[in-house]
Amino acid sequence: MRKVWLAAVVVLGALAFGQQEVKAGWIYVGPIGDYGWTHAHDVGRKEAEAAFPWLKTSYVESVPEGQAGSYIDQMVRQGTKVIFATSFGYMDAVLEAAKRYPDVIFAHATGFKRAPNVATYMADFYQVYYLNGLMAGALTKTGKVGYVGAFPIPELKRHINAFTLGVRTVNPEAKVLVRWIYEWYNPAAAKEATEALIAEGADVFAFTEDSPTVVQVAAEKGFPSFSHYSPMLKFAPDYVVSGQLVHWGTIYKDFLAKVYAGLYTPKNLEDVDYWWLLPQGAVELGADFGVPVNPKFAGRLKAKAVDHPIFGEISVYDLVMKLHGLMKDVELAFDPFQGPIKDRKGVLRVPEGLRLTKHQLETMEWAVEGVVGPWPNEPK
Amino acid sequence: MKLVPRPEPGVLEVLLVSVGAVLLAFLASLALLWLYGAPPWEAAAAIAAGVFADPRGFAEVLRRAVPLVLVGAGLALAFRAQFWNIGAEGQLLMGAVAAAGVALFSGLPGPWMLFAMGLSAFLAGGLWAIFAALLKARLGVNDVITTLMQNYVAIYLVDWLIHGPWKGKSAFGFAYTDRFPEAAGLPLLPGTALAWPGVVLALSFAALFAWLLFATKLGFEVRVLGENPEAARYAGVRALFTLSWVALLSGGAAGLAGFVEVAGTHHKLLAPLQISLGYGYTGIIVAWLGRNHPLAAALTGLLVGFVFAAGDVAKVALATPFQLVQVVNGLILFFLIAAEVFLRYRVVLGVRRG
């Protein structure tokens, strides 16, 4: 349905405004070959370029935060009219540049400050993490699930919390052991952390780090894992259960089509904030595109039954599929952070019958029950 | 053709050989760009347009050069005394930490704020370097190792601060301090991103170090100590005293570079790799290119600043990969080292008569 609407908008826009070409530029924080964040944005850029004949794109990779402003200058000099800045750290530089170039449209990923010509956007995984958690809970034999995290920031805390809620829905006594490595990309540290978690007894693994290291180290020991960000099934086809995948292209195509059609202008972006989840197709469940659950694990997941408050007696596999379907629903028929939820210190964080607002999700610092390990900035 | 050794080369020869090496390096870089599909004339034109066509572009050269000159001039001084300070990166970060601490917690008004930030950054960088100098002078501990290792200590200190006690309330959970108050921002040259006081600081310190080195007793002691430690000892040069001064000044200049970066560009403390962009290490190339003359380091700092700024332009205008800047810097160093042979030897053409 959305595709039809998009196509209609584009055709109408082209007829009405007769625009010739849109030049869009991307500012990346890492190298496009990082197999994580920047790579995924670049896939999205290419997808948009392939979809729209009127679109011309360019990019710069590994842009330090203090340099973003001068790269934006250079892009504008090249005639770029739409600039996507893909790191939180670019926020101030983007807002300053937006004042300098009032006719250029900016979109800032993960940020929260907007302006008439600055929109914000984010594709978030927390729903997918919950589904992965359900499967992890069914697969752990020791009751300990290992999690290797990059940085203890709200985004990761939200994901680990959702994951843990999933684990404990299936396995109420299970724990999620967390280790932080304080880098987005550091295979050596990820390996060490995984080995330490194995030594502590963890037998299922999930992580946030831009390499397939955790998957590979776990597979060497014969432990299942969940891939992160890019398709990692091929790195351990017998051991990767599922994972989370991103489709930035969905957001980029929607945004650029609306720019082309004249719906987005440098004057009306103040309230344009994409917070795109499963329903919009910005994220996907799976370790490879189109494979939500590795068929090799279907048997074990079907064999494990839980007594679910909504569905009653149901296999974990069916539960994952049912909730996946519900969360893909635009009306958000189900949400992982459905009250009552207490944090691990016993404070009630989500009251009975309520869910969290986007702002509460974005600023989440607490840890749910079942999370074990250091948790910097944990509220008292 | 054969090579004949020659005595100490003159200033003119040094200059000619250095400029020649840099030109060759630029030509090699253009050839490299050609391989990426940008013909040399187009590449040169695009870079010239991006760097020289408007004040914003050119100000970027100076903005990159300021920390390089501060670090490079200080290192020139240190290397003269054979104090092998590989720790400018850490000293720069300590300066940034001290400046950020003053900015965030002192609440000082107007110009006092900037003065206190600069002074504390200088002292923090200087004291961070003195530690290694003391170990070297007293216990003979290898300064390359200590200064290098101190870089990591400084990096982890910054990481700890931004993830822990100094993490900003407005940072949305990301690892940054809060933004500095207005009073803690260096004024910018209108229409550019260049904090002009940084340029004044860099030039003043390069001149100060040159004066110290060539017109004062301390400078004389530094040079004697560097060229012949044994002779220096007989002549009564106080190694501990001299090394400590050199470390304080060299580390202090690097600390000031950290101050300029956080007060002029970032306005907050952030991830160590984002604060400095490796200026502490590139400063070694700057000092070396300037043959450890602080004023020459001001020129070579400008040159390397140009390489950085031109690399930024090339990344956008020619879509070159991000590693190109490092490759060009490497090429310059490579050609300079290779050209060294022409300083030590004369090339004599002709058939050898037997």
Beta strand % of chain B? under 5%
For the record, give the distance between the C-alpha atoms at the N and C termini of chain B, rounded to a whole number. Answer: 14 Å
Task: Look at the structure and give the mean pLDDT of chain A.
Answer: 92
> Percent range for helical residues of chain B?
over 70%
**N-to-C span of chain A:** 46 Å
Uncertain regions spanning at least 5 consecutive residues of chain B: none
Read across the widest sheet of chain A, the strand sequence of neighbours is: 2-1-3-4-5-11
What string, H for helix and E for strand, traces the elements of chain B in order? EHHHHHHHHHHHHHHE
Strand order of the largest sheet of chain B: 1-2
- What is the CATH T-level topology of the largest domain in chain A? Rossmann fold
Annotation field: number of helices of chain B: 14
Shape of chain A: globular
Question: What does this entry look like structurally?
Answer:
- The complex is a heterodimer of chains A (380) and B (354).
- By secondary structure, chain A is α/β, with parallel strands linked by helices.
- Chain A has two domains: 2-113 and 248-276, Rossmann fold; 126-244 and 284-372, Rossmann fold (3-Layer(aba) Sandwich).
- Chain A contains twelve helices and 17 strands.
- Chain A has helices at residues 2-17, 37-51, 68-77, 91-100, 126-139, 154-170, 187-199, 213-220, 248-260, 295-303, 316-327, 358-362; strands at 22-27, 55-60, 82-85, 105-109, 118-123, 144-149, 175-180, 204-207, 225-229, 240-246, 273-276, 283-285, 305-308, 312-315, 341-342, 348-350, 371-372.
- Chain A has a six-stranded parallel sheet, sandwiched between helices.
- In chain A, strand 15 (341-342) and strand 16 form a beta hairpin.
- The longest helix of chain A is centred in the middle third of the chain and has 17 residues, at 154-170.
- The radius of gyration of chain A is 21 Å and the shape is globular.
- Chain A starts with a helix and ends in an 8-residue tail after the last strand.
- In chain A, 52% of the residues are buried.
- The mean pLDDT of chain A is 92.
- With 354 residues, chain B is an all-alpha fold.
- Chain B has helices at residues 11-35, 40-52, 55-80, 88-105, 110-139, 143-163, 196-215, 217-227, 229-234, 239-266, 272-276, 279-289, 294-317, 324-344; strands at residues 2-5, 345-348.
- Chain B has a domain at 66-301.
- Chain B starts with a strand and ends in a 6-residue tail after the last strand.
- Chain B contains 14 helices and two strands.
- A two-stranded antiparallel ribbon of chain B has the order 1-2.
